[in-house]
């Protein structure tokens, strides 16, 4: 699976980082950075994408 982030839409809530810290990190600019663009299929990663409050995260596969 492949994860992408729209940093313009991210508000830096940090929810994705809490759910899947190996894949997402809120950087010093207060916007998400994808640490692993092609992570192993993982329920926590899917949850993080679905629960982003601004819909900044997308998933393919
Ligand atoms: S959950 Fe969404 S808005 Fe919050 S830090 Fe992650 S990508 Fe940004």
Output mean pLDDT.
97
Question: Count of DSSP E strands?
Answer: 4
Encode the helix/strand succession as letters.
EHEEHE
Structural class estimated from helices and strands = alpha+beta
Domain module count: 1
The separation of the N and C termini measures: 4 Å
- Estimate the helix proportion, in percent: 10-25%
Reported CATH architecture? 2-Layer Sandwich
Largest sheet: 2 strands, antiparallel
Percent in strands? 15-25%
CATH class: Alpha Beta
How does the overall form come out from the CA principal axes?
Answer: globular
Annotate the secondary structure layout.
Blueprint: E1 2-5, H1 15-19, E2 24-26, E3 32-34, H2 43-51, E4 57-60
Antiparallel strand pairs: 1-4, 2-3
Residues 5, 10-16, 24, 26, 32, 52-54, 56-57 line the site of iron/sulfur cluster.
Function: Ferredoxins are iron-sulfur proteins that transfer electrons in a wide variety of metabolic reactions.
Domain 4Fe-4S ferredoxin-type: 1-29
Cofactor: [3Fe-4S] cluster
